Amino acid sequence: MSPTSSFPVLPVALALLFAGCARSEDGAPPPLGSLQFPTGIAITPEDPTVPTRLLVVSSNFDLRFRSGVLHAFDLATLDRLIEEAPPNPACPAANPSCAPVNVPDITSAFVGAVEIGDYGGQVAVAQLAPGLQRAFVPVRGSNSVVAADLDASRLACSFGGTLCVTGGASFPRPDPYSIVVSLGNLYVGHFSTTRISPTGGVIGTAKADAHFWSLGGGALQTIDVGNTAIGGLAAGGCRPGADGAPICTLYASGRSMDAGNQQVFLFDFQAGVPILGPLFSRNLAPQENGADSRGIAVSSDAADVFLATHFPAALAVIDVTRIPSLPTDGCILPEGTVVPPGAACPELPPATGETPRFATADQIPSPIGPNSVVTIPRTLPDGSPSDLVAVTTTDGIAFFDMRVGVLAGFVTGLGGTPSELAVRPNGAGVRIYTPSFSQGTIGVVDLLELFRPESARVVARLGRVQEGAF
Q1: Could you state, in order of their start, the residue ranges of all structural domains in the chain?
Q2: What's the CATH number of domain 12-325+352-462, 2.40.37.10, 3.40.190.290, 1.10.10.10, 2.130.10.10?
Q3: Parallel, antiparallel, or unpaired: how do β-strands 101-103 and 457-462 relate?
Q4: Total-model pTM
Q5: Residue 346 binned pLDDT confidence (cut-offs 50, 70, 90)
Q6: How confident is the model over 114-132, as a mean pLDDT?
Q7: Strand extents, DSSP E, 299-396
Q8: Which of 175, 176, 413, 459 could form a disulfide with 171 if both were Cys (CB 3.0 to 4.6 A apart)?
Q9: Of the candidates 4, 28, 21, 6, which has an alpha carbon nearest to the alpha carbon of residue 140?
């Protein structure tokens, strides 16, 4: 489950206040084992030779230190710290788990860190080979994408060392933030709606094992998307191609503050082939009357995408099933000839290609500030899929039950402004990790019964509250 999303919204006055802090401690080395205004979070892929890590991006938003950081923590150790933590003092002896436990010291779980520059965004991980993984972080301060390699014992820049600030691959637009990796391809989006190039917005792409990552430098290729930024990215809908090699689909939400401009995009790709066939798009504004799209996720059966929008605050469900493209335009038929419904013109080739339907099936009201979106697959007794969708909001995590299309659960107490979501199986349910941008901690949520989303509860807060917390 890959998380996808965009940046936390903060008042301009607050940003200017924090920027003033840079002059007092400019050049100070960043803390490596604690977080500072964290944004991205990801769990590394399963690899029997590499312990599972929780990767977290510290953005250095207030410029208090010389750089932001990509941290790696051992996930099993974090979970053990939660299990061994003393009960919250607010809980009575008869109910020791009535409130989340606080684990301020997580240094025993710290594995390594690299400096990446200021204003890092999301993080995504590719499996390069058995025992070797590569993490990627878009960095707004340098308009670049930084890569760092993980093995069983360390985290280091892909070109060596732990100072990755100047060795990233360049991104050709301001404010790269969202990222997804699939089939060895990575895709990057940029969220700025006020600084779009005269030539339009793009999705950046590169191979995860491209040589320039190991050398430092390089540049991403681009896929043009027109006059819009990108709110979020997701990959899914994988299936065998004609040659047996898998084909997947990339989904992107266009982000614009302009009324009447609410784009969504998708295209297919294969390993080493960043775009396969046409780029499909549709402006959903006439259907939804919305703007400022954020995170996007795909349903487990690839029939729908789930799109978070700020105006209105909602989770949109968009039907993206493919429909045949029938060559029926311009038919010249003898008088009295009837073409059956769905058939092509006589003596013309059969239908070729498939176009997404792009129909808004539902628009479910959300708590204020929906941002990052993750699909949690569920299966009904008859074997059919019935997804649960988790969405970060300004104050917590909202759970939407796609069986009935409603907001079915909402948890708060995560520390404020949860930015992204990382999800792993936990028994019959899931455990969710989310960084608090405003507090510098990680909230941990257990949902042990997937068909009872109202039972989700915050079980722990990890890390010390950051300096400058709000």
Answers
A1: 12-325+352-462
A2: 2.130.10.10
A3: parallel
A4: 0.90
A5: low
A6: 98
A7: 304-311, 314-319, 322-324, 354-356, 359-365, 373-376, 388-392
A8: 176
A9: 6
